[in-house]
Amino acid sequence: MEYKDVMDCKKFNTFIGKVFSVIFRSNREGSIKYFKEKGYDNFAAKMDKSRRMSIGK
Questions:
Q1: What residues form DSSP beta bridges with 56?
Q2: Domain range spanning residue 46?
Q3: Most CB contacts within 10 A, which of 3, 25, 41, 54?
Q4: Do the domain assignments include residue 39?
Q5: Residues ≥6 apart with Cβ < 8 Å to 42
């Protein structure tokens, strides 16, 4: 199922997900939006360049 806003997805927007976002200082929503807009290759290149697994806050 596609959502216009990833925060509407109950599997994505969970308490545990929010806790991990705080602990790892990651922007989960921003990472998903970037991935959708720019595609896999651009996302992977950006993460490789920044040496991270997700976009930071």
A1: 26
A2: 25-57
A3: 54
A4: yes
A5: 34
45 vs 31: CA distance, rounded Å: 13
Dihedral angle of Cα 23, 25, 29, 31, to the nearest 10 degrees: -120
1-25 pLDDT, tens digit per residue, is 677 777 777 877 789 988 988 888 8
Q: Is the confidence at residue 36, as pLDDT, over 80? A: yes
Return the biggest CA–CA distance within the chain.
Answer: 31
What is the count of structural domains for the chain? 1
Judge whether 34 lies within some domain: yes
Q: What is the residue type of 22?
A: V
pLDDT of residue 21: 84
